[in-house]
Each structure stands twice: as structure tokens, then as C-alpha cells.
Fold these 3 entries.
Entry 1:
Amino acid sequence: MVGATEVTPNIEPFLCGNNFDVGEDGGLKVDDHMHTSVSDIYAAGDICTASWQPSPVWQQMRLWTQARQMGWYAAKCMAAATLGQSTDMDFSFELFAHVTFFNYKVVLPGKYHTWG
């Protein structure tokens, strides 16, 4: 598993000697099971670029909440693959919501920037 904690994907340490597909935003492309283009390598969080067809109300924002959800889902996908089982896309990728803002309770569900 490859992980990072930055807003800008820091993929440079992983590129040498590997053939990862890289997204336009500089992240390692992952499919809907968090697989990268390199066999048996998963990526989650800020280092990856979601390359699946997203829900109309979800967008990748590279926030800690999404990184945590992606990490949990990547672990679930790795465990399922090890056991020879399949897993469905997690609900976390159906609706974007983020709830922290200087200790105030703020909820931003869906693609809030398109409301109007």
C-alpha cells in the first residue's frame, strides 16, 4: 500500500523503477478498488487520483476525511482480494461531506460549489 498526507500528491519517491499511471492532477491513478496500474499495489488518500466514474454528487477534495475513508476502503479491498472475495464500492464515495471548520459544525454535502 502507498500512502501520503499532503494536498499535492507526493508520488516522486514511488516512480523510480515503476510504471504507475499518473492522473492529470499528479496522483497515482486508482480504479474503484483502489488498485494502481502496478499489480498488487494499492493507493489511498492524497497520493491517488480517483479514476473511476464518480457519483454525480462526489468529488475528490484531498481532505483528511476522504483520505481516511479511502484508506479504510483500500484495506477492505485488499482483505477481500486476499480472501478471493469481491467487494462493492463503499457508500463513502456516493456523497461528499466534510464536517470540520475551526471547531464549528459545518456540513458541506455533495457538490456544494454548484448550488445556486
Entry 2:
Amino acid sequence: MSETQNGEVFEAITVHNFSEKILEQSIHFHVMKLSGGFFLWVGSSPVLSNLAVSMSSKYDSMPLSTLVMGDPSNTAANSLAQRLAKKTKKQVYVSYSLPMTDNNFSLLVEKRIKKELELLPEHF
């Protein structure tokens, strides 16, 4: 679905929510498809504790990434945004509001995100 204003075509914002129990913890995911990219929020409670953005660059094979808000010592949002931007070739905003407990947990969360994105190719 798209809308035209002054000759420009704008994609409609679509929203997709899903949840998963990972290592006995309920994790919630909120994805908003934007024109040319998407916003992903991951958390167990309704908190926006950080925000990172990443996008491809013609000067480097690794996407550019920066933390827009949050604790710079927590690199989870930045890293995830960068990996998703590389995979999807889109601009990606990520808020990762989960405690950094162990790497296995983070890998399982990322695996679940990638599985969902594969199930919804028409959205992303």
C-alpha cells in the first residue's frame, strides 16, 4: 500500500508484533516497516532504553552504524542493527531493551528475529 503526495510515492507504515519464550523469558518484538527500512524494538517490558541506526554504505562492505540514544557501553543495539542492515540491505533502527545476560541468549533472540523476517518477505 502506498500514497502519492505532490508526485512522490510514500510507502505505508506497517506494523508486525510477535512474542517468543526464550530461555524461560518472554520476549516481545515490534517491527514497523518504513519507506526504505524498518524499526525493530526487542524487550521484555515496555521500555525504550536505547536506539541505534545502521545503513549500507558504498564505501565499505560493513554497514555504517551509530547509537542515537542510550548507554554507549552497551553495544547490543548497534551490533544487531548493523547485522540486520547487512542482511536486508535496508536502513535499520533497533532498540534492544533486554539485559545482557549471556551471548547464547542474544544469539537465540537474533535467530528468532531473522526467522520472522524470512517468514514475512513481503514486509521487508
Entry 3:
Amino acid sequence: MSDLEVQIPSAFDPFADANAEDAGAVAKDYIHIRIQQRNGRKSLTTVQGLKKEFCYNKILKDLKKELCCNGTVVQDPELGKVIQLQGDQRKNVCTFLVQAGIVKKDNIKIHGF
């Protein structure tokens, strides 16, 4: 029995090439703009992924003044600081961030229905 060598095939990972490419590529820091449905017609717009060097409170103050809505900055243990705004403000926030020069349009991802 010792003369027989058993060769166990190694597990095939179909995503190994994709993971290797992602590791070598420069990681893009995306700004994620999402909508969360509350109750009925009410909704929240969340903005996450802004760089830590920005003053979130000043951005929030300008957003609230520009969009005529209320909002807050929430500290999330996984995501860091997240800006929350009342209502569906996804497109408005996107145009504001681009016009203010905070982020380029290519680095913004808008999620939601």
C-alpha cells in the first residue's frame, strides 16, 4: 500500500485571478450615496466614504443650507463617520460634492432604487 501515492487534487478557485488583479491595482476610494427607506414615504440619504481629513460638520452645514433639509453626522463602528440627510437627496448630494471639489464624479457610487 505504501507504493501507491495518492494525489489529492487541489481546490480550484475561480476567483483567484480576479483577487490577484484587485490586490495589485490601486484601490479607489469611492463615496457611497445610499437611500434608506423609513416608514411610509419617509427616507434617509446616507453619505459614507469621505476622507477623514474633511470636516464632516462643515460639509453637513453646507449640505443642509443648500438642500433645505435636516441632517446629522453619525459615528458607525464599521463604516466610520456617515452623513445622514432627510429625504431622497442622492442626485443633489452628488452634484454638490462635485461642484464643491470634494470628490470627482468618477469616484461616486449612487445606490438605491
